[in-house]
C-alpha cells in the first residue's frame, strides 16, 4: 500500500478540495539575481580549477537554488539530485561512445580492409556517424533528462516523476522533425502536439498523473494562417531588398548589364560583400517578422498549458505576443552580448515569467495522493550533457 502524501506538513492539515473548488493562484518565485549569479560565478571558478569536472555539482547547486525559490500553493519545490549522479551518467555515455568508436574501427579494419573510401579515415567515419546518431540521441537525452529532474523533485514531500520510454520519444521526435523538414515546416502543429503529449501524459506527482487533451486539429488552421502570412512577409521583404539594390545601383551609375555581370561572374570581393549583405538582411528581416513568430509561440504556449490538467487542478496562461517578443529578444541579446555568461539571468527571467503568467485553478486532493512506487533513474542526464549542453 502506498504511503499517503503529507500535505499538511508545516501547518494545519487542510480539508480535501472538491473538483468544484477552482480558486485561482499563481506560482511564486522569490529568487534574487545577485544570489543566483554568486552561485554561478562560483560554479565557473571551480570549472576552471577542475578542468570542467565540477560542473555536475555546480549545476546541482544552481538547480537547488531555483527549485527552492519557486513555490506553488504556498509550498516550495525541493531538488534532491546529486552531482555524483550526473557524473555517473556522463561517464556511462563516454563509455558507450568509446565502445561505438571501437566498433567502427573494427569494422573498418577487418570487414572493409583495403576497401574504404580514399581520404576517409577512422576519425572521419566516427564523426560522420556521430552526426547521424546525435540528432535522435539528443531527443532521447532530453526526455531522459526531464525524467531525472522530475524524479529528483519533491513538492510537499511527494516525489514527482516521468514514465514512458525515452527511446520511443527520441524515435518519434526524429521522425516528426524529419517529416516536418521535408514538408517545409507545414507539420509544426503535429510536432508540437505529438511531442507535448508524452511529456505531459507521462508526468506525475506522487500517484497523481497529469493529462493532456490537446488535438492537432484545434490549432492547425491558425498555424496555416501564420505560415502563409509568414511566407508573404518574406516575399515582400525580399522584393523590397532587390528593389533597393537595383535602385542603389542606378544611383551609383551601375547599369543592369553590369549588375548581371557581377551576379554571373562575381569576384571574391563581390562574394564577400554579398555574404555580409545577406547576413545583415537576414537579421533585419528576421527581426521584422519576429512579432509574427512571437504571436504564434504565445498562442501555442497558451493552448498547450490550457489543455493540461492534474486531476481536478487546471492550468491557464495569459501570455501575450508583446510579452513573448520581449522575452525572446532580450534573452537572445543577453546570451549573445555576454558570450553565454548571461544564462543565470535568462533562467531568472524565465521563472519570473512563469510566476507571472501561469494560473493554477483548484488544489490537489491530498488524501487521495500517495508516493509513487518507482524511485526514478539511478543516475543523471549523460546523453543531454553529450549532445545538448544548454540550460541547467
Walk me through the structure.
- The protein is of the alpha+beta class and 392 residues long.
- Among the domains are: 84-214 and 373-392, no CATH class; 215-289, no CATH class.
- Helix content is 62%, strand content 10%.
- It is built from twelve helices and eleven strands.
- It has helices at 33-49, 55-68, 83-111, 122-151, 166-182, 188-201, 216-251, 256-264, 268-306, 321-337, 343-357, 382-387, and strands at 24-25, 28-29, 70-72, 75-79, 153-155, 158-162, 203-205, 208-212, 308-310, 313-317, 358-361.
- Strand 9 and strand 10 (313-317) form a beta hairpin.
- Helix 1 packs antiparallel against helix 2, helix 5 packs antiparallel against helix 6 (188-201) and helix 9 packs across helix 10 (321-337).
- The chain is globular.
Secondary structure: elements and pairs:
Blueprint: E1 24-25, E2 28-29, H1 33-49, H2 55-68, E3 70-72, E4 75-79, H3 83-111, H4 122-151, E5 153-155, E6 158-162, H5 166-182, H6 188-201, E7 203-205, E8 208-212, H7 216-251, H8 256-264, H9 268-306, E9 308-310, E10 313-317, H10 321-337, H11 343-357, E11 358-361, H12 382-387
Record field, number of beta strands: 11
**Which residue ranges are poorly predicted, with pLDDT under 50 across at least 5 consecutive positions?**
1-19
Distance between the termini: 35 Å
Q: Compute the gyration radius: what is it?
A: 26 Å
Q: Biggest sheet: strands, sense, closure?
A: 11 strands, antiparallel
Count helical runs.
12
Helix content: 55-70%
* Largest sheet, spatial ordering of strands: 1-11-10-9-8-7-6-5-4-3-2
Q: Give the structural class.
A: alpha+beta
User: Strand content of the residues, in percent?
Assistant: 5-15%
Amino acid at each position: 500500500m502506498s504511503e499517503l502524501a503529507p500535505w499538511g506538513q508545516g501547518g494545519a492539515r487542510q480539508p480535501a478540495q472538491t473538483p468544484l473548488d477552482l480558486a485561482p493562484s499563481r506560482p511564486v518565485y522569490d529568487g534574487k539575481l545577485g544570489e543566483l549569479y554568486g552561485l554561478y560565478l562560483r560554479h565557473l571558478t571551480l570549472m576552471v580549477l577542475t578542468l570542467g569536472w565540477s560542473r555536475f555539482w555546480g549545476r546541482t547547486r544552481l538547480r537547488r537554488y531555483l527549485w527552492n525559490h519557486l513555490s506553488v500553493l504556498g509550498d516550495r519545490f525541493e531538488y534532491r539530485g546529486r552531482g555524483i549522479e550526473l557524473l555517473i551518467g556522463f561517464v556511462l555515455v563516454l563509455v558507450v561512445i568509446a565502445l561505438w568508436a571501437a566498433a567502427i574501427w573494427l569494422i573498418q579494419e577487418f570487414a572493409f580492409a583495403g576497401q574504404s573510401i580514399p581520404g576517409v579515415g577512422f576519425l572521419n567515419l566516427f564523426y560522420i556517424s556521430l552526426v547521424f546518431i546525435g540528432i535522435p540521441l539528443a531527443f532521447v537525452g532530453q526526455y531522459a533528462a526531464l525524467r531525472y529532474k522530475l524524479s529528483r523533485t519533491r513538492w510537499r514531500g511527494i516525489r514527482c516523476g516521468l514514465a514512458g520510454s525515452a527511446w520511443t520519444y527520441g524515435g518519434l521526435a526524429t521522425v516528426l522533425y524529419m517529416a516536418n523538414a521535408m514538408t517545409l515546416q507545414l507539420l509544426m502543429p503535429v510536432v508540437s502536439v505529438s511531442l507535448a503529449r508524452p511529456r505531459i501524459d507521462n508526468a506525475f506527482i506522487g500517484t497523481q498523473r497529469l493529462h493532456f487533451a490537446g488535438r492537432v486539429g484545434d490549432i492547425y488552421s491558425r498555424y496555416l494562417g501564420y505560415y502563409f502570412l509568414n511566407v508573404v512577409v518574406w516575399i515582400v521583404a525580399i522584393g523590397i531588398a532587390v528593389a533597393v539594390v537595383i535602385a542603389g545601383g542606378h544611383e551609383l551609375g551601375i547599369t543592369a548589364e553590369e549588375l548581371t555581370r557581377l551576379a554571373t561572374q562575381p569576384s571574391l570581393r563581390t562574394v564577400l560583400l554579398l555574404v555580409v549583405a545577406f547576413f545583415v538582411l537576414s537579421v533585419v528581416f528576421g527581426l521584422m517578422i519576429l512579432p509574427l513568430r512571437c504571436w504564434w509561440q504565445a498562442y501555442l504556449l497558451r493552448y498547450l498549458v490550457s489543455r493540461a490538467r492534474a486531476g481536478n487542478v487546471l492550468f491557464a496562461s495569459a501570455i501575450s505576443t508583446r510579452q513573448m517578443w520581449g522575452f525572446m529578444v532580450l534573452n537572445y541579446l543577453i546570451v549573445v552580448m555576454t558570450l553565454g555568461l548571461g544564462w543565470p539571468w535568462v533562467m531568472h527571467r524565465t521563472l519570473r515569467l512563469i510566476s507571472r503568467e501561469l494560473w493554477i485553478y483548484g488544489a490537489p486532493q491530498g488524501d487521495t495522493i500517495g508516493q509513487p512506487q518507482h524511485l526514478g533513474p539511478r543516475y543523471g542526464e549523460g546523453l543531454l550533457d553529450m549532445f545538448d549542453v544548454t540550460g541547467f
